[in-house]
Amino acid sequence: MKIGSKLILFYTLMTFSVALFIILVFYVVTSQYIDNVFDVNLTDKVYLTAQAHFKKDEVDEKAYEIIKKDNSELLPRAREIVINRKDTAALHDSVSVYLDPVGRRKLFSGEPVLFEKGNQRGVALSYHDNLGDFVVVVMAKNGYGYKIQQHILYLSLILLLISIAVILILGRIYSNRILYPLKRILENLKNIRGNSMDVRLEETENKDELDTLVHNLNDMLDRICEAFRSEKSFVNAASHELSNPLTAIQGECEITLMKERDTKLYVDSLQRIYSESKRMSQLIKHLLFLSRHDDDLSDLESLDIDLATFLSDLSQSTERVIFTDETEYSVLVKANPYLLQVAIQNFLNNATKYSQKQIDLRLKLIEGHPTIEIEDYGIGIPKDEIPLIFQSFYRASNTRDFSGNGIGMALSSKILNIYKAKIAIESEVDQFTKFVISFR
Q1: 240-253: per-residue pLDDT in tens?
Q2: Can you tell me the distance from the alpha carbon of 418 to that of 293, in angstroms, rounded to the nearest whole number?
Q3: What is the pLDDT, as a whole number, of residue 359?
Q4: How far from 268 is each of 173, 243, 259, 350, CA to CA, in Å?
Q5: 288 pairs with which residues across the strands?
Q6: pLDDT for 292
Q7: Most CB atoms within 10 A, among 63, 253, 294, 409?
Q8: Cβ–Cβ contacts within 10 Å for residue 92, how many?
């Protein structure tokens, strides 16, 4: 079932339930009120009946005429029964038909007793007169009241059906109006393909949840488009980088196989093939690292690493690197030793590649955060290219004369991001380059 139909059904059922409850309450209260009014009239009628039968000799003629007139006008179709209490048989036969034992006890205590018999309502009264004690019974059918109740019930049901029909119509119109932007969003999303990633959804300008949804979807499409382009660029660059050593290996093999050569030439050829295959192996290894999800890398076992000892070992294994520990006590970070070594080693390798001078490796505590500084005094990085160096396969414009594939910085950035480390860069062309790695 579609959302629009669900909304219409839900609000129709809810409105129907509320309206039905109100109608039932109104009908019950009105019916009780009509019955109460009729019972009051019956009670008045029984007193007037008693007075009409027994007050003739006690009041003047004018007053008696008023009593008779009131008695004849009030419930004129009522049935009147007057029974002498001395006639016990008639009293028992008549009263027991209308009243239960509780009602009979109440009757003989002098109170009027209401009762129902079939479709008639009645009231019984024990009346004392100078002629003796009597029981007066008045019964009548509340025909007019029942008709009022029927009309109320029929009118309520008709209004209920009309209201449901109106709600269904208005609900359909309103749901279509509300869901129209959503339908338009779905149609636009269907038109987005791999070759049309620049298509964006039109915002509703209503400042509502749908407008927020469109805005978030456009943001998501921007990210997907950027990721799609990055992946396409990554694949193209990876293909190019992998084809170079393969081409070199194939060319070397073809040249070597063209004719017989002495042992030294074969050794030299194998050495070049080994070098190219090693470069390709390293490239594939880095690509596999880059392709892994951050969660996969963060699941690798992490240990508490003493940065002073860790960096000292790296400086000793890398030429021209001078390590300086500017902390006063042991500094620990939690990371996977191998991944952290790969990340820092890439910075050091680049420093030794692009500078022939000393490389300074420093460990500091800045505002309580362990900080590693790697500074070389070589070719530097152009200012406008600094934000790009962590992109896969990107190489600065002044590195054309140096070997490399542009993966190391992207790999280091990915690893350090896993451990919430921030990387800041300061550089001047032909002066220096300083990387500041701060762990949070």
Answers
A1: 566 767 787 888 78
A2: 10
A3: 92
A4: 82, 21, 15, 28
A5: none
A6: 59
A7: 409
A8: 12
